[in-house]
Design goal:
The chain is an alpha/beta fold. Helices cover 39% and strands 20% of the residues. The protein has 18 helices and 16 strands. An 8-stranded parallel barrel has the order 1-2-3-4-5-6-7-8, surrounded by 8 helices. α1 crosses α2, α5 packs parallel to α7 and α8 runs parallel beside α9. The protein is elongated, with a radius of gyration of 27 Å.
């Protein structure tokens, strides 16, 4: 069985709250998806906005190796002739061989949104597809709100599919646009209509019930061979079906030919790259590609994993480009220390005095308030230092932070830093939205000329926890910083009675770990 993967990150995914792609962002994502071997990349809606029009214009000069670029749009406007409709013209001007248009298959939408008769809507679908076919385009028809429409008026919903088929659509995609259909109903409806459809059937699900992946798999089981989704499950409201999860399941669990094993090894890297470009924190518990997908904390789990990884992992993480992690915690014993040292290309015996000393240090630090299970990067730096293998990338000579509230009600933060980098004195100042942001900006300003790879990382999360609430404003705090670059995410920690000092510890660790891992992997 062959399955086509159709990615709509650049259109549906771009509708995620908080995401705004530039043209160059969209081009980078398209190239990454092409490198992975995704069959179809929906680039956007040409003519609907200048950004998407420019994207398709620039993509005409870029040759994709594995993927087909698709333009997206709607059926013609009820008051426009199809050959004069600007939406249809925009689709044609995009220059893509394959185009995707959506049409209404729910009579509620026809009456109350389009405000036309049911027959007129069928005419919009027929004329739009026929015209695009006459211009040499292959047409994928997205039957919007199909499942809701079928549940309320099955005869009419089916008519929209048959009209699309008769007009020349090569693929008909059944959309659960509101994301409210149960899995059993997805299967039942597809089994009912499939005997009446002669062209390829596809599925497009939304995640409003947290069932988008399950519903897509049910559709595959019912005979759909074209599946649509977005990377990392991005999309409006609760998102779309996650193509990362679907690709892993289809290939590794169902043995379905959708991507090569070599390409599959890039899945995690490209998932991180897209979250980085999207300026979104990568989801730690995302199946297959999440940072915690193959993370183990409990001592019993870790002991079993060392003996046989199958005991607590359903696949080898390397198959999807991820890695196994043993979380550093006083609950986990000394085994994670030895394993983490190996990741850093260091050797240490589990029963050695050095291992015992490091474990005792770990216990002491956790007693002080440090937590390394979500700050493994900080622990890796500790290991390097305890084993006398760490070489400083820079030395702090001092910093100062000023926070000032001005007459216009703005709170203004400025940081100055003195560093010695590769034997050279550096003195920089920078502003920020707050004291930590100002420190981060000043630190980067001093270091980037020596370590340009720092432009590839950013802080994705910042958390502060008061460790002793009874101490009030004098309480010790724990600061956790999550950082990420185009390939992975890492956590660092700082603890102090002074929130700026705790933040500085975590911030320095995040920078030093980035430089360390790049050096190790070089």
């Amino acid at each position: 069985m062959k399955i086509e993967l159709y990615d709509t990150t650049l259109r549906d995914g771009a509708q995620t709250e908080g995401i705004s792609y530039s043209v160059n962002d969209k081009i980078r994502i398209a190239k990454a998806l092409d490198d992975l071997g995704i069959n179809y990349i929906e680039g956007g809606w040409p003519g609907a906005n200048p950004k998407d029009s420019e994207f398709f214009k620039k993509m005409k000069r870029i040759k994709l190796k594995n993927s087909e670029l698709c333009a997206f749009g709607a059926t013609r406007h009820p008051k426009k002739k199809v050959y004069l409709d600007p939406n249809i013209r925009g689709i044609l001007d995009s220059g893509t061989k394959i185009v995707t248009i959506f049409g209404k298959s729910w009579d509620l939408h026809v009456r109350e949104v389009l405000k036309v008769s049911l027959e007129e809507n069928l005419k919009l679908i027929s004329e739009s597809i026929s015209y695009l076919r006459s211009k040499g385009r292959d047409v994928i028809f997205d039957a919007e709100h199909f499942f809701d429409g079928y549940k309320e008026n099955p005869n009419y919903a089916l008519k929209t599919l048959l009209v699309a088929q008769d007009s020349g659509a090569k693929t008909i995609v059944l959309c659960d646009t509101n994301g409210g259909t149960l899995t059993k109903d997805i299967s039942k409806i597809i089994f009912e209509i499939k005997p009446k459809i002669e062209v390829q059937l596809g599925i497009h699900t939304h995640n409003d019930l947290d069932l988008a992946v399950a519903n897509t798999l049910a559709a595959v089981g019912a005979g759909c061979t074209h599946i649509q989704g977005t990377f990392n499950g991005y999309g409006e409201r609760c998102g779309n079906a996650d193509l990362c999860t679907l690709t892993g399941i289809l290939k590794l669990k169902m043995g379905i030919d959708c991507i090569s094993m070599d390409k599959l090894k890039k899945l995690t890297e490209i998932s991180y790259l897209i979250s980085e470009i999207s300026n979104m924190k990568h989801s730690d518990n995302q199946p297959f590609v999440g940072r915690s997908a193959f993370a183990h904390k409990g001592g019993v789990h870790i002991d079993a994993m060392i003996k046989n990884p199958k005991t607590y992992e359903h696949i080898e993480p390397q198959l999807v480009g991820n890695q196994r992690r043993f979380l550093i915690s006083e609950l986990a014993g000394r085994s994670p220390i030895v394993i983490t040292a190996k990741e850093l290309k260091l050797e240490i015996d589990k029963k050695s005095k050095k291992a015992k000393k490091i474990f005792k240090l770990l216990q002491d630090l956790e007693h002080q308030g440090y937590s390394f299970e979500v700050a493994d990067a900080s622990f890796k730096l500790i290991l390097q230092k305890e084993l006398k293998k760490f070489k400083k990338f820079f030395e702090l000579e001092g910093f100062r932070v000023i926070v000032e509230k001005r007459k216009d009600e703005r709170v203004f933060a400025e940081a100055t830093i003195r560093l010695k980098v590769k034997g050279k004195e550096q003195y920089t100042a920078a502003e920020g939205a707050g004291p930590v942001n100002a420190l981060d900006n000043a630190l980067r300003k001093a270091l980037i000329q020596f370590y340009p790879q720092l432009t590839k990382m950013h802080l994705s999360d910042f958390k502060v926890r008061v460790l002793d609430e009874k101490a009030g404003t004098a309480a010790k705090v724990r600061v956790l910083i999550q950082s990420q670059d185009e390939k992975e995410s890492w956590g660092t920690v700082g603890v102090s009675e002074n929130i700026i000092e705790a933040s500085w510890q975590a911030l320095i660790d995040s920078i030093e770990y980035k430089l360390l891992k790049d050096k190790i992997n070089a």
